């Protein structure tokens, strides 16, 4: 048995879910996220010997982010403009049609979709710090490492991202009840 | 115009302020309505994001794909490696099969402790991580722990029975500095972790990714022996340590 491979599985693969989530938030497309994660894990495996310290998750997410940026550049070079991820028509109908779901469930779904959509609409540098802080629960130092900026920048981006998201969220919830029904 | 302290309030909210700064910020918040509102907003947004955004996990197909891609990366020169590399992880193919099965089939681990123990064990096998104090003498190893770990475990050498004491190490673990006693048994390394019991129950013996973990409790210390040896060899050491 290759013990390098085994160490990799024990130390790195437990963070595969986080890598996938992060890739999803960065690329906003499941297919692209799959590609990014696969490429990132292979890169991580090749560079595994260079891993120092115990911050494996931050290290893996840094690689995921780099792979995402590379893939993005390649797509742009090919002048291929990805269609924005639509919240599928099927889903939209489900909301309008009265389903047997209790009211609260569909309201929660609306809420999820609202926040999901508002997050997706944020600039990438705001979205990524929010995801790393609020979803992945990383500290400033780790976020600074993943996004490759100083801690001070992490703090100001977080503040701006939170303020922007909150403002849009409030607008949305003030408008929503009338718009939906 | 936001309050000049808003950045510090955010840092406090994110758990980034040390105790002194936190006390200072709390005093400020008491007297500043704007910062109280900010703190409420931060809390509300966090709660909403954590509750309402989908918390996705990697699809099984992706996981399987990744493992296959890793298999394809594996060097083919394994036959040329020196024999002791194989001995390092004695159960070879079984461990591969077990870990693949583990990642494909097992639900997420319910006990992070087991994860931590296996991680700590594997980390210890990396170059220069195994031992902090090299000694085959229990009278050297035990006092060393006094300054480096939060607990003082039983230290004994069982070279005659085939378990040679080769040293000790401190590991941060379960929110405390655990003491680790390192034994060598044939080609295998056995790490014996010990830490102060935080809860009443001692975990059940378990196997994770091919590593066996045997737990027991003596007084208020929990012990766990971790290794890739067979169960019998591991339990023999446990027996010796308990005597």
Share of helix of chain B, binned: 40-55%
What is the helix tally of chain B?
A: 9
- Flag low-confidence runs of chain A: 85-101
- What is the average per-residue confidence, as pLDDT of chain B, rounded to a whole number? 81
Structure description:
The complex is a heterodimer of chains A (181) and B (243). Helix content of chain A is 76%, strand content 0%. In chain A, α2 runs parallel beside α4 (56-77) and α4 (56-77) runs parallel beside α8 (140-147). Mean pLDDT of chain A is 81; it is low at 85-101. Chain A is mainly alpha-helical and 181 residues long. The relative contact order of chain A is 0.10. With 243 residues, chain B is α+β, with helices and mostly antiparallel strands. Helices cover 46% and strands 20% of the residues of chain B. Chain B contains 9 helices and 7 strands. Chain B has a 7-stranded antiparallel sheet, sandwiched between helices. The longest helix of chain B is centred in the first third of the chain and has 20 residues, at 33-52. Chain B is extended and about 70 Å long. At the A-B interface, α1, α2, α3, α6 and α7 of A face α1, α3, α4, α5 and α6 of B.
